[in-house]
Amino acid sequence: RMAAFALFFQWSAVVAEDVPKAIADAWASDAKDLGWGGLLPWHFKDNWMKSFESLRGPFNTGGLVLAPILSELILNRYLTSDVWPFVEDICNSWGDMEQVVPAHFEAPVRASAQDWRDAFRRGLGEPPPGSSGNPLNNLF
Q1: CA 37, 38, 43, 44 torsion: positive or negative?
Q2: How far apart, in whole angstroms, are the C-alpha atoms of residue 119 and residue 106?
Q3: What percentage of the chain's residues is helix, strand, coil (to nearest 5)?
């Protein structure tokens, strides 16, 4: 549940609690030692597992996901200057990639250069004009 919640900025399986209910629940919580004094200002709908399975992909094959909280709050500010050039640099320099080792969750993930590019397209849309990037080997 926490993995799925952390990935999504607005996730359909999470419902925010109103402040008085969240505080009352925190006082009654058996999980105060987990941090924040037991304050968890949301609850999960019954369909949370279905949403998590969708995230994992068909037959638990996984795949690359650009977390919406990153695409909405951070990366969208730097699409032309940094993000798309970086994405294209990876694709152009390592076009024969077979896997990606993400910093979170299970690794490695079987993925091609096109899978890498597609993960960013799903999260950010098509690249803006003029964001083709430079080959990475020019940087090293």
Answers
A1: positive
A2: 16
A3: 55, 5, 40
